[in-house]
Specification:
Blueprint lengths: L4 E3 L5 E3 L2 H10 L4 H14 L4 E2 H15 L1 H7 L1 H6 L6 H13 L3 E9 L4 E10 L2 E8 L7 E2 L1 H14 L7 E6 L2 E2 L1 H10 L2 E3 L9 H7 L13 H9 L10 H6 L4 H16 L1
Parallel strand pairs: 1-3, 6-8, 7-9, 8-10
Antiparallel strand pairs: 1-2, 4-5, 5-6
Length: about 270
Amino acid sequence: MKALNVLKASGEVEPFSEEKLQQSLTRAGADNTLSRWITEKVREKIKDRTATSEIHDRAFGLLQKQKGPLAARYRLKQAIMELGPTGHPFEKLTAWILRSEGYEAETNLMIRGTCVTHEVDVVAKKEGRQIMVEAKYHNERGIKSDVKVAMYVHARFDDIKGVDRWDEAWLITNTKLTSEAREYARCVGLTAIAWNYPGERSLQNLIERSHLHPLTVLLSLDSWAKRTLLDKGLVLCKELNEGVLTSVGLKGKKARAVMEEVSAIMSI
């Protein structure tokens, strides 16, 4: 079988990996038979240097025809990008993630530092420790958080810890981290969590294991309804109920369809 390369959103070229595609489908809840079948169908249609976004779209379309709730889960990364254009919904998602890990969490606090006042995205507390969290959000594919981002977070932490007791600084981002950013974070003691880093505590894993799927994954909601719900301060599927949906004009069959999809996603 001829080897194929794929074109990533960052412009990088890498070999097409059937294993990686199958793993992404399995993570969404597809069984081995379905994930292998979709992978084979996708490979039949792609050419050398096909964009990874096109591969994702093909897999998503096939999965949607077979099992809609799995397709919704499969598009988690894209759904997070649809939380924008501002970073406020992502900050709320970050706070939810921290609460699921046993932290108290508040968003958008003004904290006085030695030199200037900082707007801190999330302040987390647990077992007497106080943590400054920077939630770095991007809504475009192919962007990575580089070492300058990590240095910026560390510099802010240095300023605020001179005024009050602050024990840790964290950087949580929906993008990938460059290798230099990861190295710098390890060196200065900055906790860094990115889309696929570090391993079991990556952003993707933290969201999936706590069922903190953003409402933007839902296929039964149109873009207007999603934006309206986000503007109301809602972020997660688990925050939705028929009363909330009624408040944005979704009633009867439409509301029931949304809640059935929410239930299906949460039960996988």
